[in-house]
């Protein structure tokens, strides 16, 4: 079924608009062509287009859902049946079957996920991969099989890794519809003449709008439901809000527009469940038109752009364009001088290979895999390798409060009498209640027992005997135990037995059954006055504002006649109010230190929670998060877009947020604030934000859906693990960028020298096989870069891909490399007169060794902003790999391999020139480096 446009009437009076609303609904539902199919087609079109309103706004589909539910909530119950074309008896089996065919299965929006071959095509269709595929094909055509095999192997590794990651992500999104499937009791009517109402059980997928459902404790709501009848109904909405508490619902109310959507008393939402009570409800929305479905409909569609991947793609296009120009000039030059098209073309392909950073996929993935292993040692599982790199760029971390900043457990902070003074008697009786309570043990009971045992109180529960218990329920919101003291039962001849009823629970519920108060002076029992009540509630409010959870404690002495039976109502009446007990979920000892370390590294923390604002503020103050700028979800709803983005930017604590609001906060930080955002959450309600964040982080104990959408899973709820992850991400990013800059500068500088040499000599400075061997050795020398050390400055602040940074870096540093290569050409020309055809073997051997050593030395110059080998030395892995490759390169002209490559041995005088050349290169390169750092305030 489609949604009428209610936005124009949202502020109108519901009584005066009922008839016009009804008319529009009937026409909207019955007269529209293709009905649900048309609306679903439009929904999928918007889904595929990926268009969305700005961060602070609701989408068109969300706006329709909000308007529809508010209209239903404001309308009289009897008129709602007309809105969904149903009756008080329910739908007939035939009508329900027809609607099921029309609307489709009742599941969250079933998106069209890409097939495996589409994912494989997307993984392979990348400029860098296309370069290698084309070059490998040309290599095979020109009988250069070894080089072709190497390039295809690199393509295979790169495509396989990307395909695996994207396929895993797609499978996670498909699991959304699984967590709400369950059998539902539905009222249907049967009979042609005399219709009979039947209660039947159907699968959740078969529920349709207009069905009347019957629910009991433990049932899930199969759609958005307008309540018809209720009896002490209490519902858990934690799947939508993230709050562990419950909310009361009732059918006997008509809401207004000012009530927040999730606080509507007469509406229950798909995916929420009944905690206690029972009732009936009319299903008004199913499938993709429910609040939960529109909430999750954005999953996978608004993942932030990958600046690093986009940068790599742009560099690839730049290299392609540069390659086409250079290779064309070189091929034409060689052909005009040698008139051998095949040889000229082969040399052009070799130059293209030399210009391509062939080790890029292996180096990048090796850096990421190394980071994943390091994080695994910190008890952190990485699902998506690129998340490690994003961790290094992250500058804002959005975190939930419970279990992340806090212990996710309760401790007693105070036990106070009615005047706010600490009172051991209050603690004694609340302890006896918790000790003898047997049904439905809660964390608060464990907190009470732990406080008594660890603080040395001796209340001697062995001297008491439990007689009975009135268990907790969500209507009374209290629990009572009846106990006897051993001294009271020693004389079995007594007609009356002294027993005590001890009650604890929600303060207002406990106070409602109290009529007496124990006075602060002398323990005198007197009547509970209105002034006493005001004082108690003021104290409770004061404690609540400090972020504490407060319960009330009461008791009374029963004069019980042997053999008589007292009702629960009689037992829980005219009690003596004793006082208050305040609990607190304390922050973790490690949280403050971890947040301080993150702040030192340039990562700001924002708390996004569904809990109350006062509790969030108290926790944040204790762990060092500033609380000058705070806001709640309902307040965010009232802001326009500009105010929304400005508030999100400034606020550090955002409480009472719905899942959709968490999503919008994350998107606002990404799009308007231009931040790299991480989100740490573990509930179903966090799935939207986890999916949208650059880095989604969950915990091993989190909900399955949350773990599916997370990029990183923590085996411990400890922020210190994230500190280690941020450091590792920055190490990975630094080494990856180090390789890219080194490789592009070395390749570009060398190819420019070859181009100039070709034009100058009218012949190739190196033959194709010589150039390919040089390129192969250089690539081997770079393979140890993932194990290189990084300087402290490179991990002190978030690292991000800069669109302009890499081209500027190349323009500053490539000319230095080209200048040294040209100096070698001039030296060989004028000193050795190696410009005749019979000297080409010597010339090419000298140029081969110089080019290889130059590329190796570039690694050491570029990898640090300090003076290489003096102020900063590379890791032993890099030293070993570069030294080995340098030795091999120098030795080749003197070996049989050199003869195969048509090299001549080099005189010692040439190596003296190389020493001077490289000293000059390091000097000029270091000067350029210092000037660059002074201008741009950074190096890598």
UniProtKB/TrEMBL annotation:
Residues 71-144 form the Cation-transporting P-type ATPase N-terminal domain. The lineage of its organism: Eukaryota, Viridiplantae, Streptophyta, Embryophyta, Tracheophyta. One of its GO terms (molecular function) is metal ion binding. Residues 1-22 are annotated as: Disordered. It is found in: Cell inner membrane. InterPro entries: ATPase_P-typ_cation-transptr_C, ATPase_P-typ_cation-transptr_N, ATPase_P-typ_cyto_dom_N, ATPase_P-typ_P_site, ATPase_P-typ_TM_dom_sf, ATPase_P-typ_transduc_dom_A_sf, ATPase_P-type_domA, HAD-like_sf. Residues 1-13 have a biased composition (Basic and acidic residues). One of its GO terms (cellular component) is plasma membrane. Belongs to the cation transport ATPase (P-type) (TC 3.A.3) family. Type IIIB subfamily. This is Magnesium-transporting ATPase, P-type 1. It holds the Pfam family Cation_ATPase_C. Its EC number is 7.2.2.14. It is a multi-pass membrane protein. The keyword Signal does not apply. Keywords: ATP-binding, Calcium, Cell inner membrane, Cell membrane, Magnesium, Membrane, Metal-binding, Nucleotide-binding, Phosphoprotein, Translocase, Transmembrane, Transmembrane helix. It catalyses: Mg(2+)(out) + ATP + H2O = Mg(2+)(in) + ADP + phosphate + H(+). The chain crosses the membrane at residues 119-141, 147-164, 315-338, 344-369, 739-759, 842-862, 874-896, 908-928. It is an enzyme of class 7 (translocase). Mediates magnesium influx to the cytosol.
């Amino acid at each position: 079924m489609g949604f009428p446009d209610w936005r124009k009437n949202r502020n109108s009076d519901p009584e005066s608009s009922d008839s016009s609303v009804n008319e529009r609904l009937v026409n909207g539902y019955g007269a529209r062509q293709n009905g649900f199919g048309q609306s679903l087609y439009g929904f999928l079109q918007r889904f595929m287009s990926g268009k969305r309103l700005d961060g602070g706004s609701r989408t068109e589909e969300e706006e329709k859902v909000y308007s529809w539910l508010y209209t239903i909530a404001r309308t009289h119950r009897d008129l709602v049946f007309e809105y969904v074309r149903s009756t008080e008896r329910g739908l007939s089996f035939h009508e329900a079957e027809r609607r099921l065919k029309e609307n489709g299965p009742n599941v969250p929006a079933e998106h069209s996920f890409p097939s495996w071959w589409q994912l494989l095509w997307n993984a392979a269709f990348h400029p860098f991969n296309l370069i290698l595929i084309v070059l490998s094909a040309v290599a095979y055509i020109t009988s250069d099989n070894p080089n072709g095999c190497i390039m295809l192997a690199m393509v295979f590794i790169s495509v396989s890794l990307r395909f695996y990651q994207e396929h895993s992500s797609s499978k996670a999104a498909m699991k959304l519809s699984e967590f709400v499937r369950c059998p539902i009791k539905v009222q249907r009517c049967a009979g042609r003449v005399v219709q009979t109402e039947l209660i039947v059980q159907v699968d959740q997928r078969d529920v349709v709008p207009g069905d009347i459902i019957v629910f009991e404790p433990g049932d899930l709501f199969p759609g958005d439901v307008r309540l018809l009848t209720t009896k002490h109904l209490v519902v858990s909405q934690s799947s939508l809000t993230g709050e562990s508490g419950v909310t009361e619902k009732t059918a006997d109310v008509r809401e207004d527009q000012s009530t927040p959507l999730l606080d509507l008393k007469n509406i229950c939402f798909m995916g929420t469940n009944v905690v206690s009570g029972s009732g009936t409800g009319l299903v008004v929305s199913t499938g993709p038109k429910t609040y939960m479905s529109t909430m999750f409909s954005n999953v996978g569609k608004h993942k932030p752009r990958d600046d690093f991947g986009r940068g790599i793609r742009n560099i690839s296009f730049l290299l392609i364009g540069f390659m086409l120009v250079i290779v064309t000039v070189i091929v034409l030059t060689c052909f005009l001088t040698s008139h051998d098209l095949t040889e000229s073309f082969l040399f052009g392909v070799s130059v293209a290979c030399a210009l391509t950073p062939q080790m890029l996929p292996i180096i990048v993935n090796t850096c990421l895999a190394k980071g994943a292993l390091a994080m695994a040692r910190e008890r952190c599982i990485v699902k998506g390798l690129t998340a490690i790199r994003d961790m290094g760029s992250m500058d804002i971390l959005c975190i939930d409060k419970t279990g992340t900043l806090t212990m996710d457990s309760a401790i007693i902070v105070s036990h106070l009498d009615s005047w706010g003074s600490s009172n051991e008697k209050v603690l004694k009786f609340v302890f006896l209640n918790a000790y003898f309570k047997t049904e439905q043990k809660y964390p608060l009971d464990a907190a009470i027992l732990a406080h008594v045992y660890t603080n040395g109180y001796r209340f001697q529960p062995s001297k008491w005997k439990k007689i009975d218990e009135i268990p907790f329920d969500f209507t009374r919101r209290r629990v009572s135990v009846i106990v006897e003291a051993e001294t009271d039962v020693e004389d079995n001849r007594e007609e009356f037995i002294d027993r005590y009823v001890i009650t604890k629970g929600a303060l207002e519920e406990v106070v409602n059954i109290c009529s007496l108060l124990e006075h602060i002076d002398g323990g005198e029992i007197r009547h509970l006055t209105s002034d006493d009540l005001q004082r108690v509630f003021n104290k409770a409010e004061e404690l609540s504002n400090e972020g504490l959870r407060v319960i009330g404690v009461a008791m009374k002495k029963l004069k019980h006649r042997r053999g008589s039976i007292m009702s629960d109502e009689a037992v829980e009446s005219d009690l003596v109010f004793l006082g208050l007990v305040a609990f607190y979920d304390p922050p973790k000892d490690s949280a403050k230190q971890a947040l301080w370390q993150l702040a030192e590294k340039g990562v700001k923390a924002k708390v996004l929670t569904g809990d109350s604002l006062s509790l969030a503020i108290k926790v944040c103050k204790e762990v060092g998060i500033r609380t000058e700028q705070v806001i709640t979800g309902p307040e965010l709803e009232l802001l326009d877009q500009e105010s929304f983005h400005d508030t999100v930017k400034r606020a550090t604590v955002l409480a009472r947020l719905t899942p959709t609001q968490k999503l919008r906060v994350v998107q606002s930080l990404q799009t308007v604030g231009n931040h790299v955002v991480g989100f740490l959450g573990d509930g179903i309600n966090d799935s939207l934000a986890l999916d949208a964040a650059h880095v989604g982080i969950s915990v091993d104990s989190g909900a399955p859906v949350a773990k599916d959408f997370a990029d990183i899973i923590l085996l411990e709820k400890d922020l210190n693990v994230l500190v280690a992850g941020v450091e590792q991400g920055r190490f990975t990013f630094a080494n990856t960028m180090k390789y890219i800059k080194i490789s592009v500068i070395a390749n570009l500088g060398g190819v420019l020298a070859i181009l100039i040499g070709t034009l100058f000599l009218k012949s190739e400075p190196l033959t194709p096989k010589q150039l390919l061997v040089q390129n192969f050795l250089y690539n081997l020398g770079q393979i140890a870069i993932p194990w290189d050390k990084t300087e402290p400055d490179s991990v002190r602040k978030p690292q991000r891909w800069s669109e302009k940074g890499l081209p500027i870096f190349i323009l500053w540093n490539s000319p230095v490399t080209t200048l040294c290569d040209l100096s070698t050409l001039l030296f060989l020309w004028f000193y050795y007169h190696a410009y005749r055809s019979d000297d080409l073997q010597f010339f090419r051997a000298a140029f081969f060794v110089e080019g290889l050593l130059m590329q190796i030395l570039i690694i050491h110059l570029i990898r640090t902003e300090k003076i290489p080998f003096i102020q900063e030395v590379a890791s032993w892995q890099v030293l070993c790999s570069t030294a080995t490759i340098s030795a091999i390169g120098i030795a080749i002209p003197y070996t049989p391999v050199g003869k195969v490559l048509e090299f001549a041995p080099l005189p010692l005088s040439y190596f003296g020139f190389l020493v001077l050349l490289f000293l000059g290169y390091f000097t000029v390169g270091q000067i350029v480096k210092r000037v660059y750092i002074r201008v741009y305030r950074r190096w890598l």
